[in-house]
Amino acid sequence: MNMKRLASAVMVLGCVSAFAKPPVAKAPDAKAPAEKAPAAKSKDPEVWITIGSDAVGFVNAALMGEGLAAPARVGEKGQVTALRLPESQLPLVSAVMHNQFHRCGGFFYHGTEAEALAAMNAPVVETPRSLAANYTLDNPYLVNTMQAGLDPANILATITHLSTTYPTRYFTSETGAAAAAWLADEWQGYVPLDRDDVAITLFGHSWLQPSVIATITGTTFPDEIVIVGGHLDSTTSSTTNPAAPGADDDASGIATLTEVLRVAMAQGYRPAKTVKFIAYAAEEVGLRGSQAIAQEHKANNRNVIGVLQLDMTNYKGSTVDVGIISDFTNAAQNTFVTNLIGTYIPGVQWANTQCNYACSDHASWNSAGFPVSMPFEALFDGRNQRIHSAADTLANTDVTGAHALKFAKIASAFVAELAEGTLTITDTTEPAVAITAPAAGATLTGSVSVTTTATDASGISRVEFLVDGAVKFTDTVAPYTFTWDTGATPNGAHTLEARAYDRVNLPATSAIQVTVSNSASVAGYDPALRAPRCFSVSESCDSGALLNGRANLGPEVNFPNTINNSCSDGLSGSYHSDESNDHIKVATVDGTPFGPGKLVRIEATVWCFNVTNDKLDLYYTGNAATSGSPAWTFIATLRPTAKGRQVLSTTYTLPAGAVQAVRARFRYGGSPTACGTSSYNDHDDLVFAVQP
Ligand code: BES
Ligand code: ZN
User: Fold this and answer.
1) Nearest alpha carbon, ligand 1 atom 14
2) What pLDDT, in 10s, does the model give residues 429-454?
3) All residues at 6 or more sequence positions from 427 whose CB lies less than 8 Å from its CB, including other chains
4) Which of 35, 224, 250, 284 is catalytic?
5) Neighbours of 156 (CB within 10 A)
6) pLDDT at res. 120
């Protein structure tokens, strides 16, 4: 149907995925036992829809097929027909539209006949109602500081509360209204007492559940309005189970924008333009809450310069992180949003996608003529299939909240760059910081990954890592981690500390005691060089069990165990039938520590498949601590003499260099080379320290 002509009309019920199954003509207000219809309203009121005239025949046939009367035609203009029907029949109409008109199978809902007729006569909206927004990115301090204050734990807590406290948040239910009241209260709790410029209000509707609005009045341009919204209600398409946790759809969106509001208040954000955070009621029944609010903004000529819709943010259903919904949205603002991602959230991948129908509240703003964007948790094809059911739980989405956090970062950047303004960070609470690994009291060898969590109301600016009081490393980007090469620390007890600084430079420290116990002659895996390594000088270096197997065949966990992943292994055959190099040991012949010019014996333990074709090529380098592939010098090619386990051995003289290595390449056929591609090749390196 002609969506443009209807663009300024009321609301849309889309190709409702929930109704794609055989239609159930069920009154929306009969969904959940806990709910109550608004007082003094008919149980099944008449409503009006405008619909493409070509669809009317299908709708009539479907209703009559269910033993129902065809809807009354109340008007027709151009390609659009207005119909009157009982509200309980809308799901059936949705199903018809979904099945017959796969693309844009929506229809517009109207509460009165006058609205329906007006919609048919409405002019086509050609230009946005608002003044052109300034899409230049020039507020990095604001964006980076607000983003640094975001904590996924808070997002998870809000999703958990909304999805487990209320059996449903259906728009006519008592629990749906209770959820709105809780949210308003939660938001109010974020607002410092001296913020007269901030108001939390309920926007009442003709049904029980209100929408919730937080307004921060702009300091310089209060008439320009930036909006971030999501929907508060939930629904289920089940006829037997009324539970509608709606953890992803759309507790996730509400939780995401709630965290942005919390940070804005915690950091004393005073926007130059007015910012509104909106939790819409009644999205699931035709975008009705957002429709009422968008129309109110239009009717009062409010200058809404940008709207962001967050509906479903915590289920990573596609390889890309963010699907930019390109229909029923504003192309120029979408480009702005993708620029925000590229500039402020490097590493987050996005791609355009479409619902092909008015799938969420962005459509209400779009049809009211305001620029709106909807960054979505997946591409449409990768969408969460559990929504609108009892299985839409947090456990079935990202339990770490990391996915939703990306959308909180997008929303923060959107607000900061569009509404601009200032921060006043009066944070007197020190950060919360904890070392999450290694465990206190742990005995450590080789390279150790030190991980932390660090959060603060005003944001974390950096985390320092200290060993025995000396700063070894500083990380400025979460997650805050440090790869500690314990080989450079003497064996014995040591204090490991992580010290986090917040945006007002308040530090907090988490400290643990650990014991370093490196055997100089048994290699530990070095995640920096990606190979087994003896960190301190000894008379020998042994790979232990680290090299046993080839590629993903056998127990070789860190395969291929070649320096900087510079050479990969063949993937064919099976462990301990086909070829593998399982172990390397290097030792001085005279038993004194490794040093330049000393004769060393290299022993490789291989698994031989075939004595005729299997050969072992050995190489050494005096400079293993390099980037990319080291320069290898050939030592010898050795041949096994029997199938199965074989120890092959030769000697060479150590060159100069503090960090040296040997490479064993065990191959089936072929000729000597430090790195070959045949499907049974195994390449393994062993790195060791040598006296200068
Ligand atoms: N969150 C969904 C919309 C959605 C679902 C977008 C999957 C992208 C992928 C929304 O709450 C919803 O369910 N919308 C209805 C249509 C609405 C007009 C009643 C739908 O998609 O069926
Ligand atoms: Zn939904």
Assistant:
1) 359
2) 899 999 999 999 999 987 899 999 99
3) 266, 267, 456, 457, 458, 502, 503, 504, 506
4) 284
5) 22
6) 73
Hunting for tokens 């129908």 — which residue is that? 357
Cβ–Cβ under 8 Å, residues 443 and 514: yes
Residues 6+ apart with CB under 8 A from 101: 1, 15, 52, 55
Per-residue tokens: 53: 């005239």
Helix, coil or strand: residue 19: helix
Is 196 marked active-site? Answer: no
d(CA 147, ligand 1 centre) in Å: 28
Q: Which residues contact 374 (CB under 8 A, 6 or more apart)?
A: 308, 309, 310, 311, 324, 325, 329, 360, 362
Q: Which of 123-127, 409-413, 450-454, 552-556 shows the lowest mean pLDDT across its residues?
A: 123-127
Q: Which of 427, 423, 426, 479 is nearest to 146 (CA)?
A: 423
pLDDT tens digits, one per residue of 651-663: 999 999 999 999 9
Active site residue 420: no
CA distances from 596 to 81, 532, 691 (A): 91, 21, 7
Q: Which of 233, 259, 283, 685 is catalytic?
A: 283
CA distance 372 to 361: 10
Q: Cα–Cα distances in Å, from 465 out to 34, 75, 439, 496, 547? A: 53, 72, 15, 7, 31
Residue 544 is encoded by which pair of tokens? 């232990």
**Does the active-site annotation cover 583?**
no
Comparing 44-48, 98-102, 171-175, the range with the smallest average pLDDT is: 98-102
Helix (H, G, I), strand (E, B) or coil at 55: helix
pLDDT at 163: 98
Mean pLDDT of 481-503: 88
Q: Please report, for residues 225, 271, 327, 363, 407, the alpha-carbon distance to residue 373 in angstroms, rounded to integers and kept in the order given.
A: 15, 20, 9, 9, 12
Q: What is the pLDDT of residue 131?
A: 53
pLDDT(39) > 90 = no
Token code pair at residue 514: 């650990």
Secondary structure E strands in 125-218: 198-203, 211-216
Q: Token digits for 127? A: 């230009």
Pocket of ligand 1 (CB under 6 A): 12-14, 16-18, 249-250, 283-284, 286-287, 311-312, 355, 358-360, 376, 380, 383
In this model, does residue 59 exceed pLDDT 80? yes
pLDDT value at position 173? Answer: 97
Q: How far is the CA of 282 from the centre of ligand 2 (A)?
A: 10
Looking from the CA of residue 17, the nearest atom of ligand 1 is 22
Whether 249 is catalytic is: yes
Q: What is the dihedral of CA 570, 670, 566, 437, to 10 degrees?
A: 40
Give the model's confidence band at 132: pLDDT under 50 very low, under 70 low, under 90 confident, else very high: low
How far apart CA 70 and CA 83 sit, in angstroms, is 9
Identify the active-site residue in 311, 485, 502, 582: 311
CA distance 655 to 160: 61
| Radius of gyration (C-alpha) of the chain in whole angstroms | 32
Q: Which residues have a Cβ under 8 Å from the Cβ of 344 and sit 6 or more positions away?
A: 137, 140, 143, 144, 147, 409, 413
pLDDT, one tens digit per residue, over 617-651 is 999 999 999 999 999 999 999 999 999 999 999 99
| pLDDT value of position 15 | 34
